[in-house]
Amino acid sequence: MDSEITIRMVDVAKAFGETKALKKCDFEARAGEVHAIVGENGSGKSTMAKMMSGVLHPDTGKVSILGERVLSPIDAKRIGLTTIFQEVLVAEEASVFDNLYVGRDGVFKSQTTGGDRRAEADEILTRLVGKPVDLDEVVGSLPLSVKQWIVIARAILRRPRVLILDESSAALDLDSTIRLHSEIDRLRSEGATVLIVTHRIAELVRIADRATILRDGITVGTLEKHEITEENLLSMMTPADRRSGDVAEYASRAKSAAPAILTARNLAVHRTAGKFDFDLPKGSIVGVAGLDGQGQDAFVRALAGIVQPFGGDVQVRSADTDRMVSLRTLDDAANLGVSYVSGDRKREGIFPQQSIFENLAIGVYRKNLGALGVIRKATLKPMFKREVDRLRIKIGSPSNKITSLSGGNQQKVLIGRAFANDPQVIVLNDPARGVDLGTKRDLYRELRLFTDKGGSVVYLSSEIEEFIGFADRVDVFFGGTLFRSLEGNEIAEEPILASMFGKSKHASVEFDLERTA
Amino acid sequence: MVSTVMNTEVAMARSASPFRTHKSIAIGFALLACLLALGALLVPGFVSSQNARSILLLAAFLGLASVGQTLCALVGALDLSIPYIIGGANILLPSLMVAGLPAPVAMIVVLILGALVGAANGALSFRLQGQALIMSLGVGFAAVGAVQIYTSLGSQFGGTVFAPVPDWLRNLSAFNGKFFGLPFPPVIVIWAAVAIGLGWIMYNTWFGRSLYAVGGSRTAAARLGISEFRIWTVIHSASGAMSAITGMLLLGFSGGGFVGVGDPYLFTTVAAVVIGGTSLLGGAGGYGATVLGVLVLTVLTSLLVGLGLSFPAQQAVVGLLIVPMVAIYARSPHIRNQI
């Protein structure tokens, strides 16, 4: 295979503020190959794809596509590079036909005639969807899977020389995946480069000619077709120092025997995925893991009463009656003592224009109301001081705006808000996202103290190493359902990562094909 | 090492924050002082108890009408039904009195109707967010239309209604009204009481704080179990009630009902909120700021009238004032927060 190099990245680095998304990335893809880019969450896959499409620019190093530098998405389009993003980007109110050809015409000139286009569009959609689609139908009224196909058809109609699929098959079922693969084969045989960014190991084992592995923002190697096996991929994705599953310090707390404070029965957090049960033993920390979009996010939100599950029942042991009570709404969660902390501080945590005091105390205002809804602020001051001291929040004056604090300290204020409610259960949704190591340690210590006093914690994280030496159990989600529970020695990098990719410990590669169906 | 970084951050925040928070207030006061000084220099008789009384009287009407607009702006809404409810109340009250209802009863009826129209407006606007502006306009039109249909039933009245206005109502808001013998109309005192009361409520009650929470971050507020729908309904209802009160007080001021009496308040209530420094995007500002905006706007108008400017020229000047105001504070904090 000595064909032409279509994509070349040399020594590329990219940082977003303090976070180094890519540290050292070297990459080459050839014409007429299917090349996979694999890695854990946050290893830099998407950043890489975005640089190739001209959405982001490297801080250092060089990116060239077909020998040219890509300065903008418009450049990329001109050169012949098309990206299919994970989100289904369609104009809901326009027709199927208009969606397929959006952005193709200049203001006054069009490249081909309407009749040719309709025939072409009709043919490709029939091939992809498996049945004809009415081109004049309004896209908004079509099912999600057809929308996804429209996005893919739009890209293929552009006859790309380089096609990037960023997790594009995530929403497709097996039958559709096969049709997508035959489409990819067709493009390859026409000499195009197809890059697939994917979480699905089985998928890339089947169709990729080569695979490049990213770990912590570094390209650690490229595998040729015959080297692409599940074992090779997993071991390259995991850093050597974490591979052994070093849990020597881990002291098993044997808390799974404790009675459950929170249970879920026949829970379904995804429309079609399987139902599952969940138990949170009193006094324990249960970690929740999964690759992006595998249902773990919806699960923890359902536990906190923020979203309604598609089916099943969440129950919490009431502190007053010692009976299990159903939790369906935020009010139920508040009454039963379930607090929620989001890692998405900006969107669902802080009130940016308000003071530090207000941001911490607002969660308990309602429990401290006098006549006519007057808040007894004076009684909240000792609580505020206690939380600030306990969580070691570095503040100037309580009346300063919350935005004057660093991200880590803002997060601590939100955790203080959760603690202030004196909860039985704290549900944390990736709370350590973008905070420094010191803050993380303070957080782990406080949560441990909380569980030592009988509290219970559900801790979702996108970083596996957070669980090690911290969680009593890790529940891994895959395909919209609880896939595997890990305890004791299994709480280590490799078993967790394997489960996140949908592998049981000793499963073979073939096994996965059936699973995805 | 970490702690030094934190400390500098805190120190920076401390020096920046007070200015940022009070910037709009400082600008408002400076503007007011400038206008008063200009008036004193350029307009003979500007500094007189007569002129002060007339400025405060007009400011009181605008201030009461702007209560609802301020509350709505704090959650990122705008209530464009205010002028129509003012106009509707202004003709409904005299026609109810002509129909034989005693004045206090008629006033309570008008007040309740105003609050109900406001509540409907809030509920509908919330359900159709994105179309909220046109929705509040539509509800206002419908309300004032319904009132005119009522006033024209079996009478010669249409958009203008004449009825004997009780002396006490006239005294409340007429230019030569007396407050317990003091030489200014009681409506000024009413406005001052509303301003102080509302300022306290906004700062100290759960209602006030949840309003700011919804305006600052809808999702974060929802996580705390604050019902955005309830907030929208309550504040629009309050806005409707305050508009009805303003409309009734304006009857005491003019002595006769006229449906178009509310028209200027479409622009001026929004302008007072913006000049005061309450962000139309929600979450920051308050009624205290609006009081300042109301005063600036009223003093400016009085100055322009004193200088002999025609009504169109006054409008042009006030309109131009809005542009720099929006540029100065309505946007900047939000962009900073995005980073």
Concise overview:
The complex is a heterodimer of chains A (517) and B (339). Chain A is α/β, with parallel strands linked by helices and 517 residues long.
Beta strand % of chain A: 15-25%
- Counting DSSP H or I runs of 4 or more residues, the number of helices of chain B is 14
**Mind telling me the CATH class of the largest domain in chain A?**
Alpha Beta
End-to-end Cα distance of chain A, whole Å, is 33 Å
**Sheet/helix structural class of chain A:** alpha/beta
What value does the average pLDDT of chain B take?
86
* Helical content class of chain B: over 70%
How would you name the oligomeric state of the polypeptide chains in this document?
heterodimer
Strand numbers in spatial order across the main sheet of chain A: 6-7-8-3-9-10
Rg of chain B computed from alpha carbons, rounded to a whole number of angstroms: 21 Å
At CATH level 3, the topology of the largest domain in chain A is Rossmann fold
Specify the CATH homologous superfamily of the largest domain in chain A. Answer: P-loop containing nucleotide triphosphate hydrolases
Largest sheet of chain A: 6 strands, mixed
Contiguous runs where pLDDT drops below 50 for at least 5 residues of chain B: 1-21, 331-339
- Based on DSSP secondary structure assignment, what is the total number of beta strands of chain B? 2
* Helical/strand content category of chain B: mainly alpha
Cα Rg of chain A: 25 Å
Give the distance, in angstroms, between the N- and C-terminal Cα atoms of chain B.
25 Å
